[in-house]
Amino acid sequence: MIKSKKFKAPATSANLGPGFDCLGLALPFYDELEVFWSDNLSDKFDYDQLVELQGRYIDVPNDNRNLLYKLIDNELIQNGFGAVKFHLRCVNSIPHARGLGSSSAAIILSLKAADAILNDLTKGTQRVNIFSRALEIEGHGDNVAPCFYGGCQLVTLNSEVVQIPVHKNLKALVQVNSEPCSTKDAREALPKQIFRSLAVKNTASVATLIMALINGDNELLFQGTEDFVHQDFRKNVYPESLNRVKKLRELGIATAISGAGSTIISLKFGNFGDLSKIVHHENNEKWEVLHFGL
Q: Is residue 175 domain-shared with residue 143, that is, in the same domain?
């Protein structure tokens, strides 16, 4: 008998300025996955592809090269169920290679699907430790933690997750650049060492950011979203995005690069006011603006 289950995972914005590789925020739009499976090799899956792609972002493989398919298949093989047949239906709403956690969403969705299959086939005796595996696959938790747990999450040095109790009425203005940005290129642009003065400033900044999020303080939020350890070092990777960040900060708007770019995120408690003053810049045709209450 063919069985199925549906899952969804949110977009996420990592770092929020100074919280490099340790702080992230879930955003209210989602990738969705429906997985169909059977342990009976005689069951027929009447689909043209292993992976059915829907949504805005379907420029990915629809066969066994698909990231979600590979991750699920790997989990099943590791647990002794490599012969299980499965089919995926993906609805992709999170932009790829834009710093909005599409890879983390794919990892979380895949592990949830693998867990559901294993739970069914083994009557609950074999399960996937979803967050631990996601952290192992991704390598850092700034996206996978909010993707899995929701809200705003801080990942400690011991890979423990602490939820930041964000004050009510936080709004996010996300500006998505049409140009993709390679996470690999963004990481390779970083220096192996930084000056102590920058580390001190960044420590103060991220502490200020956390207090601002808890207390709902826009003045502290502006101060706390200033980064000192990664954005400027990556200026050649996303020059247009960084230029827009700086212009918005000149207007007093708490703004940072989202993840590895090229998306930027602005945060405010309460309303932004006249959005046209915030989003009207050169090359506006290259940007898509998303406005959320969190």
A: no
Report how far residue 208's alpha carbon sits from residue 188's, in angstroms, rounded to the nearest whole number: 28
For residues 253 and 150, state if they share a domain. no
DSSP type of residue 65: T
Average pLDDT over residues 253-267: 96
Residue 294 predicted with pLDDT over 90? no
What does the angle CA 27 – CA 30 – CA 36 come to, to the nearest 5 degrees? 150
Is this structure's pTM higher than 0.90? Answer: yes
Residue 137's domain spans which residues? 3-155
Q: How many residues does the chain have?
A: 294
- H-state helical runs in the chain: 67-78, 102-122, 130-138, 144-149, 183-188, 196-215, 218-224, 239-250, 275-279
Asked if residue 215 and residue 117 are part of one domain, the reply reads: no
Q: Within 93-129, where are the H helices?
A: 102-122
Query: For tokens 């008998």, what's the residue?
Result: 1
